[in-house]
Amino acid sequence: MTTSYNYHMTHFVMSAPDIRHLPVDTGIEVAFAGRSNAGKSSALNTLTNQKSLARTSKTPGRTQLINLFEVEDGCRLVDLPGYGYAEVPEELKRKWQKALGEYLQKRDSLKGLVVLMDIRHPMKDLDQQMVSWAVDVSLPVLILLTKADKLASGARKAQLKEVREFVQDVGGDVEVEMFSSLKKLGIDKLRARLDHWFSQPQIVPDEDSAQ
Ligand SMILES: Nc1nc2c(ncn2[C@@H]2O[C@H](COP(=O)(O)OP(=O)(O)OP(=O)(O)O)[C@@H](O)[C@H]2O)c(=O)[nH]1
Ligand SMILES: [Mg+2]
């Protein structure tokens, strides 16, 4: 059964430079990933109906840490640093990419991935790698084609169709929807997907069998 969560109640928990600083790895986390400037932080603010829960910026590379938000006890949303931003000093870039990679690979509570891509140029190499990786490890994905307000209706639909065709070939549990934080488009689809992921029953290790 799917529960409806009240995303407007979401609150900030912490910013962590890497996974070692995160709280205990239990419950369910859904992470927002994507290229720098794709609109991850904006989407989180739109979903939660809070102007500045996640920090947004015109300057790509704004989100430099793993930012954790709690919807309710045991249900968390994660704003990840963007990838693919060229103009960041090499050393800093390596540090974030390491933190990002570790988070994705090692965080057991990660149960769903929202991958955000600008609708005008989706499925760049790093986006493809991110989606393929998630499919390989059986992590379900929701692709949001962001900034849909920047395209006319016909062009939007054409992009959606093209990306949907592309992911069909990739296999796995991957859905694609349009999204606009500006026009509040696609929020219902995002909410429904998150409700579904957060409602999945968790396998709690049996104490008897842990001996
Ligand atoms: N027109 C339009 N602009 C948007 C939309 N969503 C985000 N933006 C703008 O795109 C820019 C980047 O948005 P962010 O939400 O900060 O992007 P991000 O993916 O979190 O970026 P990083 O943290 O740098 O990885 C900002 O100037 C936003 O105002 C949208 O739906 N429509
Ligand atoms: Mg951000």
UniProtKB/TrEMBL annotation:
Keyword Cytoplasm applies: no
Domain EngB-type G span(s) in chain numbering: 26-200
Gene3D superfamilies, per the entry: P-loop containing nucleotide triphosphate hydrolases
Record key words, sorted: Cell cycle, Cell division, GTP-binding, Magnesium, Metal-binding, Nucleotide-binding, Septation
CDD domains with a match to the protein in the record: YihA_EngB
Any one GO CC term of the record: cytosol
An example Gene Ontology molecular-function term: GTP binding
Role summary: Necessary for normal cell division and for the maintenance of normal septation.
NCBIfam families in the cross-refs: GTPase_YsxC
Family from the record: Belongs to the TRAFAC class TrmE-Era-EngA-EngB-Septin-like GTPase superfamily. EngB GTPase family.
PANTHER family referenced in this protein's UniProt entry, alphabetically: ENGB-TYPE G DOMAIN-CONTAINING PROTEIN, MSS1/TRME-RELATED GTP-BINDING PROTEIN
This protein's name: Probable GTP-binding protein EngB
Organism: Biostraticola tofi
Gene that encodes it: engB
